[in-house]
Amino acid sequence: MGRTRGATSEARQRILETADRLFYEHGVRAVGIDRVIAEAGIAKATLYVHFPSKDDLILAVLQYREKNVLEFFRAATGRHGRKTPLRAFFAALREWFDSPGFRGCAFQNAAIELADPKHPGTEFVRGHKQRFFELIRGIVEETAGRSATKVAPVIALLVEGAVVTAVLQGRPDAADVAREAALKLSGEGA
Amino acid sequence: MGRTRGATSEARQRILETADRLFYEHGVRAVGIDRVIAEAGIAKATLYVHFPSKDDLILAVLQYREKNVLEFFRAATGRHGRKTPLRAFFAALREWFDSPGFRGCAFQNAAIELADPKHPGTEFVRGHKQRFFELIRGIVEETAGRSATKVAPVIALLVEGAVVTAVLQGRPDAADVAREAALKLSGEGA
DNA sequence: CAATCAATACAGACAGGTCTGTCTGTTTCG
DNA sequence: CGAAACAGACAGACCTGTCTGTATTGATTG
């Protein structure tokens, strides 16, 4: 092995994917480095070559995940059939809630586990939530026009609330409650 | 020492208060038993007499905290001046967000950290959320009458969303966004 | 009143495990 | 040869939970 180098390494990618999966399933603190290297099938030294510390790995995983998350919602909102963008967004949200292994927002979860507002991971999560809000605001604007400035923050709260509620209840129903309220708020009616 | 016994022990109470504070500030996993006993000023054996394992302590702390939380909101909602119960509730929510050391919902945080839906702590949190919802529903009913059945779940989502948003942003603004939306939904107008 | 007993809490060593991060040496492949 | 990854031992810290032995205190009893 040992062909590519730096940010495009195969081993690096395998580490990211494995850590992402394990961190999401069990939490960033509950999963040790040893478990990541065992399941990724790589050597410990290799991991520490690519990520100087576990905190660096956590941050890299969050960045890696954000790409996928934003892509998922943009794609799902884009390929809406006859649905409006807002309806398509909530369909994607519901789809996410229904997906196997759903355990809420990985960013929120990580921020809570890190329990330190100055941790690089937490700061990244803060940025992510702003970017996610911008995504929502863009979608709301397409439907609600200039009243979006007022309703977008409310819809964002509904979405956040639905995520934490769904994961705790183990049921996706909260997505529908949030959708109905959001449609009404945005003037789409139920 | 050694005067009282069982559930009324002074040492037991000191353990609960200390663990509650530490668990809330740093998380249930980040805080070790050694730190609890050091800051509570009790012996390790004493802790294990009252709580057979750390998981038992976590559960006991959650139960202890629920008493205080429900009391806080019931009291705050009860002693509203000219405010309606719903307005008083959101005033209390805002007060909580502004309180020093605010770090979101301890139950939600614990459930995320435990990352196991079958853990006794997680199951208790699930029950707590139901009880908290009933509290909200009761308050909404006093204002919105029979439409409460429809709007109470939405308001609950707004509240949950506001909590996680406020703690991540480090700002209490989300409480006001949620309040305005909730008042409108409940027919109180802005 | 004085001696004793039971309950409670104390201090802290200890075992056995896990954690992160470092390091040595080997293998694979271009 | 040289770059990358391999395997895995190791250090040092921390974790939970157990255990031994001591001190304090209220109640009991002679």
Provide tags for this entry.
homodimer, 190 residues, DNA-binding, mainly alpha, 74% helix, 9 helices
- Give the H and E element order of chain A: HHHHHHHHH
Number of helices of chain A: 9
Largest sheet of chain A: none
Spans of chain A of 5+ residues with little confidence (pLDDT < 50)? Answer: none
Q: How would you classify the quaternary structure? A: homodimer
Bin the helical content of chain A. over 70%
Shape of chain A: elongated
* Gap from first CA to last CA of chain A: 57 Å
Mean pLDDT level of chain A: 93
Radius of gyration of chain A: 18 Å
Helix- and strand-based class of chain A?
Answer: mainly alpha
Tell me the greatest interface: A-B, 37 and 37 residues
Tell me about this structure.
The structure is a homodimer of 190-residue chains. Chain A is an all-alpha fold and 190 residues long. Helices cover 74% and strands 0% of the residues of chain A. The first copy, chain A, is built from 9 helices and no strands. In chain A, α7 crosses α8 and α8 runs antiparallel to α9. The radius of gyration of chain A is 18 Å and the shape is elongated. The termini of chain A are far apart. The model of chain A has no long low-confidence stretch (mean pLDDT 93). Chains A and B meet through α6, α7, α8 and α9 of A and α6, α7, α8 and α9 of B. Chain A binds a DNA duplex (30 and 30 nucleotides) through α3.
